[in-house]
Amino acid sequence: MYKSIVIGTGPAGLTAAIYLARANMKPLVIEGMQPGGQLTTTTDIENFPGFPDGIMGPELMDNMRKQAERFGAEFKTGWVDKVDFSKRPFKLTVEGMGEIEAESVIISTGASAKYLGIPGEQENIGRGVSTCATCDGFFFRGKKILVIGGGDSAMEEANFLTRFGSSVTLVNRREELRASKIMQERARGNEKIIWALNRVPLEVVAGDNGVKGLKVFNNESKQEELIEADGVFVAIGHTPNTKFLENQITTDEVGYILVKPGTTETNIPGVFACGDVQDVRYRQAISAAGTGCMAAMDCEKFLEGSMVHDWSETL
Fold this sequence. Notes:
Layout: E1 5-7, H1 11-22, E2 28-31, E3 44-45, E4 55-56, H2 57-70, E5 74-77, E6 80-84, E7 90-94, E8 98-102, E9 105-107, E10 111-113, E11 129-130, H3 133-136, E12 144-148, H4 152-161, E13 167-172, H5 181-188, E14 193-197, E15 199-207, E16 210-218, E17 223-228, E18 231-234, E19 238-240, E20 271-273, H6 285-304
Parallel strand pairs: 1-2, 1-9, 2-5, 9-20, 11-18, 12-13, 12-18, 13-14
Antiparallel strand pairs: 3-4, 6-7, 7-8, 10-19, 15-16, 16-17
Helix pairs in contact: 1-2, 1-6, 4-5
């Protein structure tokens, strides 16, 4: 039996663990298949406060983990197969650990960026391939940038990246775009955006010092083409890691956990959510860490008995 269990070890989960451990709650932190979350695949992080010269993603996450351990957080590696939030204590079935119980649970399992699954994509993550314009756009000042996607996210990222790149080419496999009309109009009104529609991405082509371009199939000419670019941003959406919850928590239509505005409370008293698993808008390390702090403080108040209201009917 644990007072609190944190599921996930990205910036949100580790921050929650630090705060819970410092409050002498001795949380159990369950690491999944990717300890440290998406930041472990990121090289230089230059926008996390406190590091004027930047810091490597894996180093930042390792430091946060050590900080949580220092205050008494317990870490175990496993995969949460299913949960039972029907009553307290809550039950979690974890691969390799069996069934464990907790008085409270913080869900910080994040959201996974969708990838195309084409050759050269995974091999060049951090070497020119990215899924976050806000995180990595700065590194492509004055360079040719390419954005793949046809939805609102792709339009937004293309517009944002024009602040840095000499040009931004937007690639979509169809002539039609899924983006809303207003987002399309904003993108089409940007003179720095070059349109490469009706082109199917085939391969990310790498050179000696990173990405060289994207090989595509032109549906009109029926020929393969190489679109030169120094950076390739894949903007086809994210998938929240919530399948294991089996509809026991209220989510939106995509699967992001809904929380009471201004808090990390879910529709289940004693279950909290933080980080990208409940954030459809910002998805930054620093904002995730902030909600991790909130979740720990909400959790502590709940266990002290000062958070007794049930707002599940409002979701």
